[in-house]
Every structure is written in C-alpha cells, then in structure tokens.
Amino acid sequence: MIKLPPDYQKNLTDIKFIDLFAGIGGLRIPFEKLGGECVFSCEIDPFCRQTYQANFNEAPFEDIRLLDIKSLPKFDLLLAGFPCQPFSISGHKKGLSDERGNLFFEILHILEYHQPQAFLLENVKGLTHHNNQETLNIIISSLENVGYQVSYQTLNARDFGLPQNRERIFIIGSKSPFNFPNPPKNTTRLSDILEKKVDKKYTLTSHLWNYLQERKKNQRKKGNGFGCSLFAPNSPYTSTLSARYYKDGSEILIKENETNILPRRLTPRECARLQGFSDNFQIVVSDNQAYRQFGNSVALPVIKALAEEIIQQCFYSKQIPLHSFIKNTLKNDLQQ
User: Fold this and answer.
1) Catalytic residue numbers?
2) Strands 118-124 and 77-80
C-alpha cells in the first residue's frame, strides 16, 4: 500500500465500505489499497464466492434479497456493480422489468436506510440509452430522492492505461457535487498483457476458426456487427472482454505472427491483466469460470482513479490533492 501522509493515513483507515454484487472484488481492491476497510460483502454466484474467498479470506453473504439491512455494520461508502445483463445487448435489454434489474432497488433501500457519505455504482454503457434513457432517469431520480447529489459518466478502460476498448457507466452519489477525473489517455499495447509462453490448448482448432470466419461473413450480410475480432501484439487495444468469452473467445483472438495459421484465445491470466488485476490475484476456478468472472469484472485502473477522487472530494478536502500526492510518490519511488 502507498505510504500516505499521516493525516491521510489516519483518516483513510476510518473509511469503511461495503461491497455489493461484489463479483470477484474488482471494486474493492483499489479502495483497500488506499487504506479503506471492507466491512461487508455480498455475492450470489458460487464460483465468484470461491474466488473472493481465496483472495480476500472472506466468504461474501450470498443473497442480497435475504439481507436484513438493519443488521449491516456501520459504513461510509457503498460499492456495487449491480447486474448489467438487463441493460446489455447480450442480456436482451429488459431493464428494470427484469428480475435482475429490480435488484437495483435493494441498493436503494440500503442507501435510504443507512445514508452513507457516498456510493459508487457501475454498469454497462447500454444503461445510458436503455428505453430512451428512461431507465437511467428513474435510477438517478430514485437516488436523488433518498438524499444524494448524483453524477454519472461513461469511462473507457483504454483511456486509463489498459489495452481494452471497454466503456462502462459509473454513477457516483454524495452529499456534495462530484467531478469525474480526467482520463490520462496513456499509450497502450496488447503486448503489455500477453504471456510469453502459452499452452497450445488456447489455440483454436481449424474447424472452429473456419466456423467463426463463416459466421462473421453471414452476420455482415445481415447488417450485424457481431463476429470474431483478430488482434496482433502491437494492437493498441482489444475489443471488450465479455462474460461470454468462455464460449469461443471470438471477440478477442490473438494472431501473434504471420507464421500462426490459427489464432488463439487469451489465457485466463491475460484476461485478468486486461482488466488490470495483478499476477498476485489468485485464479482458483476453471478456465470457463475465470473467463466469466473477468469478463463481468471491472477495469481496475478506472476504479483506482475514481477511488482517489471519491476519497478526495467526498471525504476530505486537502491543500494537496490525494491523486497528485500518489502520483508524485510513485515517481519518487521509481527514481530512487
């Protein structure tokens, strides 16, 4: 963890947060690294719970619908990547009419009862225009009605140092206005996250490769944009990693050089890196489950930038901005 000034260090350890619809803990990691303490987590998927337990030594509460919200420990910040399938293309875009979409109101009830200082919600970009933006309007107005000033913005992982074109909407609420961080827009290359040695099992069979190419041609004839996408190591970024990557890997296929007749999938570790997870993050499930988990997770550098601003703007007002201090500290450490 970065060594913060004494006043920051004291105050940051006072920030307690809860991690709802936690997945594998992508929202949790940056806040913990900045000194916050997670006092409660909730995740229904058994395989995500397995990964969460392995990395945080904590078994999340299983079903938020069974939670007695009055029993929650005191917390200052709520984090939630609430179910995105109701608003995504692949999830048929049913929105709040979908049972999973209605889970947003579980978050709302917790916010209304506990009134934490701030919250961070994450979802797919499709939420911004779902049902002519009526769904988003309902969400924003509902959050405002329980006492928050709400801001939202779509951010792209590729603008925060990851070689992935991944747009997600982030909704932040606090008791005062919030200003989103400016993306650093660092130059990226796919080669930054590729493993040097990869098992041949990740290389596509000629049958699957021929099928994917044929399907792409047929989809184009129909005017659809779906199909396999091929990337080289020098590509600046890939397309969006999704939870369906386990099916055939078609959205991100790697052609490492001209001698490779057949492309390959990303490995689970490469998927983790594509989302910004360190190699210390334990992958304890099957490849298929790992693909699902990282495809459903968040881009950690984006969350880190948001975490710094949330702590700075929603909790403390210092003469030296926290993000500037962290940047200068890292720079000095590298020079030593």
Assistant:
1) 84
2) parallel
- Look-up: residue for tokens 């044929």? 214
For 144-168, the pLDDT digits (tens) are 999 999 999 999 999 999 999 999 9
The amino acid at residue 293 is Q
Q: What's the rounded Cα separation, in Å, for the pair 225 and 321?
A: 43
Nearest to 95 by CA among 64, 60, 58, 136: 136
Tell me the one-letter amino acid at 207. Answer: H
Gap between the Cα atoms of 227 and 218, Å rounded: 9
All residues at 6 or more sequence positions from 24 whose CB lies less than 8 Å from its CB, including other chains? 48, 51, 52, 55, 293, 294, 297
Distance CA 4, CA 10 (A): 9
Q: How far apart are CA 218 and CA 318, in angstroms?
A: 58
The span from the CA of 143 to the CA of 177, in Å, is: 14
Report the C-alpha gap between 211 and 194 in whole angstroms.
25
**CB 293, CB 181: distance < 8 Å:** no
Write out pLDDT tens, residues 263-280: 999 999 999 999 999 999
pTM of the model: 0.87
Question: Hunting for tokens 């209605």 — which residue is that?
Answer: 102
Q: Which two tokens stand for residue 106?
A: 């579980």
Name all domains of the chain by residue range, CATH numbers in brackets.
6-185+295-335 (3.40.50.150), 190-285 (3.90.120.10)
d(C-alpha 65, C-alpha 268), whole Å:
31
